[in-house]
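Per reviewer request, we include the raw input and output of the structure prediction for the construct analysed in the revised manuscript.
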Amino acid sequence: MRHLFTKIAALCAALIIIGASASVAYAADELTINGLGKVKEGDVVTFSLNLSEAKEDIMGFELRFFYDSEYLKYVDESLTSDTFDSLVYNPHLDGCIPMNWTDIYKLVSFSEKKPIFTCQFTVQKGGATELSYFVTEMYDKDMETLTSYKFTYDLSVGDEKIIEDGILAINEGEETLYKYQGGFINYRDGMGGDNTPNKDNHESVVGNQGTVTYNVVENEVQEVTRYVDGEESKGGSPMIYLIIAIPVVVALAAIAVVFVVKRPKK
């Protein structure tokens, strides 16, 4: 009888060890995103950055979305925007997708929740990671910075919502705060100063103001439209090409005038 009990005890111990090992293996393949969403290695995760409660229509913006490429691999050609048909973005930088848009003829309303953009990632391994963003500029038709808005994000795998209306972290990287602080102030609750319920304690992440000179065409847009690694950009705006073409035409005209003036008379 004692021999039988010994065998049963040994079997139970073996089952416990196997179960614990399986749990550890499963946990190792599980990725926690922003401390909330749990997905598995190999899952294709869909991310959407949303905006709502904006009192003024938007004429333009510039922002950057950050992720950790060690845990998440961007799915090629997956970034889309039904809201901005001429969104300019660069998905080929490691862990960062900068983007901008402006259209003086087609302002966009965000009084109700709409996605700014949507993209997909493949989960590379288990662990924990964080998604974040940083807005440099977001302005209305008068070039005034928005003061009423609400940023949220959604995360899903297939039809399953992993996170809905989450508050996305503000990126606090040293390079981000030094290079990309503009007129827009990023608040931790994702809301503007006019519509936040936290008016007495509205925490913000502010970088080195004054380093951005609003020379967007020469400095900032090139990061989006001209890849560091030489690849071509996704999206495009006729306004960018117009801005680039104007100085070229002026320069050619100046050369022509100088040539005519200096040409010796016969």
